[in-house]
Amino acid sequence: MKRNAAAACWLSVLCAGLGQWYNRQYAKGLLFVLIHAAGIYFITNPLLPHLKGLMSLGDKGQHLEKVGKIFKNVPGDHSVFMMIYGVLAALVVLLFVFIYILNIRDAVVVGRRREQGAELRSLNSNVFPWTLLAIPFLGVLFFTIMPILFTSLIAFTNYASPNHIPPKNLVDWVGFATFNKLFNMNVWSNTFFGVLSWTIIWAIMATVTCYFGGILVALLINQKGIRLKGFWRMLFIVPYAIPQFVSLLIMKNILNEKFGPINQYFRAFGLEGLPWLNDPFWAKVSVIVVNMWIGIPVTMVLVMGILTTIPRDLYEAAEVDGASGWMQFRNITLPYVLFATAPILITQFVGNINNFNVIFLLTGGNPATMKYNNAGETDLLVTWLYKLTLDFNQYNIAAAVSILIFLFIAVFAIILFRRTRSFKEEDMIQ
Amino acid sequence: MKPRLLFSYLLLVLIGIAALYPALWTLLSSFRVGNSLFSDHFIPTQWTLNHYRDLFRVRADRAIPYTTWYLNTLKVATASMILGTLIQLLTAYAFSRFRFKGRKPMLMLVLILGMFPGFLSIMATFIILNTLDLLDSIWALVLVYASGAALGMFVAKGFFDTIPRSLEEAARIDGAGHMKIFVSIILPLSRPIITYISLTTFAGAWVDFIFARAILRTPEHWTLAVGLWNLVDSYNSTEFTLFAAGCVLVAIPITLLFMYTQRFLVDGLTAGASKG
């Protein structure tokens, strides 16, 4: 009676790699033993202090100390460094734990195969995809997952200017105080709810105008009897082809209240001209209109693509039944287009909630207002959090706002995710 | 002609004017003598190429190192194109061709992370780079762009999925290894998707403003997006024609690239959302 699996399992629990050794996979075993040793060394030596640092975030900031006869500025604990290293340390520890568990599972699986007298499979088929993925994975880990983790941590600290900016001062854990501030403290909550409601109004308006505008333009071009369809399509795509930051900065100049050409034309007709970007109401109108200029071509291209996929025989059948052009449009074209583009509506809505460029480059969130704290009348949540980070150093509030946007998007992401059939049915193609 | 058609043509012309006006106006302004935003005529009365020449001239009375910006942007865009495309192809290939342990959860992770715009956690990226003293370097920018590339791999994966497996199996029987199959069978077949990915990552890095402004601090490290934004901001309307010339030179390569890639446009737009 062979009991290879249990023996290998216990050996691997004792020390990673022993089980593999017992299973006569010497190279793999050696690798695991080395990883185990490295793990023990790193966790006891540099990692543990870092983890402790993550808990405490330092006990003494930069301070004056008496050196000889004069007081000197002595660098103290740098809370943010401690946090970054702490998170990294935690990730490394998790990685070791993961490898450890992997090692036990591997020992058991191989042991069981030996009990059954099956052949040992080579390592190769499983390792190659992971070698391909190693670099992309590290990139995503450090520049996508780490920042997200870090954002969630910062939201629970008091990391903000002027009183808690390292290296001069320490940063402390404050629990939900930041969220509390954001929701209940007037200075912040007025701004937050004001910006939030404009963000939602903006997202709805921007999505609806671009969506229906795009459908209308596409249908306009696709009418029977319109010539040079390709030419019109090409012409209308121009706004989309120009880099956004260029066209938006140009728009900013075109809408300039004093010297811009639009107001110049108004004056040529004897009108006053409008404060396009300087009045709260008109600024909001301007961003929506400019966004239409940028966004309509996208929907137009999509809808034109969909129009070509409508089966011809539907129209032929309709004609045989004596349906008029309008009836065909009403009962075939429109339902088909609306149905096919519905998922795009969700992506565009989410995209508009985060439509940083249009707002930031066109108005910069201005016109400024006394009502809001560090935000202007047209600021979206994303532009506000950008300003909070780069211009005002209110990191904790910015982090809390990011988390809220994350949660908000997550709802839509789940809806979209369920619709994405390519994920569920991917193996059907072959 | 039927009134409906006449009306439609009228609308089309109006939309066409609206679509072209800003670009045309900027182009014409860049050839206009003088430097102000204000002008009496749409078509300049006097033409000049001075603004273009001026862009590349170093002048002591203002800080507009346009040549440096252009080179920086080129460097950033090219480097992130090469790295980003490579990363995206490798990721897509691994997910498309191999059924390895942990594949499903990883795929799920990519899909979910990909739905959140990268700049939402810009605050943390900024602080991390700041504390590690990596701010103000164009290579940090490249690092950020390239490492996010893996998340956009679904278009490429969709493409790889359509390459028949029998090709590889035949090669495997002939004794080709994993790397050999990837390099000499898969890559040559995927030229269209490689073109598409490299052009879009190039253009993406070329036009990005958000990360560039957050990471690059000093004028000599700026990319064009940040530089032009500052130009409009600090010189307001006094150097407008210069700005217009700068815009034209930035927009030309991207607009040309776009016109070239627009046949892929619909695929790219719908890839994440409603594929299948």
TrEMBL record, chain A:
PANTHER family registered for this protein in UniProt: MALTOSE/MALTODEXTRIN TRANSPORT SYSTEM PERMEASE PROTEIN MALF, MALTOSE_MALTODEXTRIN TRANSPORT SYSTEM PERMEASE PROTEIN MALF
Chain ranges passing through the membrane: 29-48, 80-102, 130-158, 195-219, 231-251, 281-310, 331-351, 395-417
Phylogenetic lineage: Bacteria, Bacillati, Bacillota, Bacilli, Bacillales
Recorded superkingdom: Bacteria
Entry similarity comment: Belongs to the binding-protein-dependent transport system permease family. MalFG subfamily.
Protein's UniProt name: Maltose/maltodextrin transport system permease protein
Membrane topology: Multi-pass membrane protein
All residue ranges annotated as the ABC transmembrane type-1 domain in the record: 196-416
SUPFAM superfamilies cross-referenced by the UniProt entry: MalF N-terminal region-like (SSF160964), MetI-like (SSF161098)
UniProtKB/TrEMBL annotation, chain B:
Keywords recorded for this protein, A-Z: Cell membrane, Membrane, Transmembrane, Transmembrane helix, Transport
Record localization: Cell membrane
Transmembrane portions of the chain: 7-28, 76-95, 107-132, 138-160, 181-207, 240-260
InterPro entries in UniProt: BP-dep_ABC_trans_perm (IPR050901), MetI-like (IPR000515), MetI-like_sf (IPR035906)
Topology versus the membrane: Multi-pass membrane protein
Signal peptide as annotated in the record: none
Chief location: membrane
Domain ABC transmembrane type-1: 70-261
Family: Belongs to the binding-protein-dependent transport system permease family.
Protein name: Sugar ABC transporter permease
Species whose genome carries this gene: Cohnella silvisoli
